[in-house]
Amino acid sequence: MRPRSAVAVWAVLVACSQAQAQTNDHFFRSWRWTEEPSSPRAAGLGGAMTGVGDDGAAALHNPAGLASVTKSEVAGGLMARGGGTNARGDTLVARTSVGFALAAVRLRQRWVLAGYVAETLASRIKLDAVPLADGFTDAGSLEGVATELGAAAAWQLSSRLQLGGRLAVSRLALDGEYSREPAAGPTNLRVTTSGSASRPTGAIGAVLLPAPWLRLAASVSEGVTWRVTRRATSPVQGVVLDDGSAYEVRQPRVFSVGATLQASRKLLFSAQLDRVAYHEIQSALIIGQGAHARGDYALSDAWEPRLGVELSLPRRAASVQLRAGVHWRAAGSLRYTGADRGEASAFSGSSRQVLGSVGGSLVTARWLRFDLSGRFGGDRGELLFGTAVRF
Q: Which pTM was predicted?
């Protein structure tokens, strides 16, 4: 299809539809949602925290686990995301920020309450300016930061059953722009997106303790949808194609099951299986450019296993904990399966990745803990540092 015809078809599609979800604009070609552990201990265990509950960070993963926290706790941490290049060739920009901060308080014998703030996503993508199969080159970037502020509560229903839930407000700040550049001549298409929106979200969880050495758990995280705006122009025709329509960006819901085995006083094994509803992104995709059908873009639900192991080495003055984990992360990016060669080279999708992690903690005899973890593999590495005070 010729560029002018494609622009005309695009304009008709926008006029006849209402924005509902993420678009196929090319700054989304490498965009992916993934569950990123914000606390160092969770990261060191590969994110396998659904069944782990002796830590205030349970508020971020499975709120029911808070019921096992024996002391009140204040904790916080920093996260340094390294730079990298993904399989599509786009650049991921490094970022250092506060990963999380929380306070958990034990009330009476059966109740624990917690409040927290966490940066659940931070991604800045610079498009690789390489000509696509249709002869155009995409130039631009997309940056998104999601921050969650919430409260969680857990109830020790009996000696073998714990229930919990959390309510939160999640804020997304999104800013992006890109242009479709021909080999020569004026720009064919220029698109910008921006906005900051806050939306409610939540999660529920349960923990079953059939034996002192075994914990079985499950949790459901609702996910969240934010509304942002889009503007598009065609410099080659000198027209405004979209003067500021609204569309939605979706973080999919996640269902998790987990188990923790306390093999001895020193050795703990943790396993987790996540079901991520990636179809929520694809099923309401908005065609922002080109005459393409929503069904030509593939992104299916996926299972994501996680495994972790933790070794505790008690000492008189302080104890040392060593841990390691692995996360099999599913492909979370849109893949175009239609006949348009240019779109196929832009939305080439992603593949399943194996992410490893290592970490450790120094725990004083009374009240202080220092945590450090690193994650590697995938598109880039991460380093997390945290500290916690218990009283």
A: 0.89
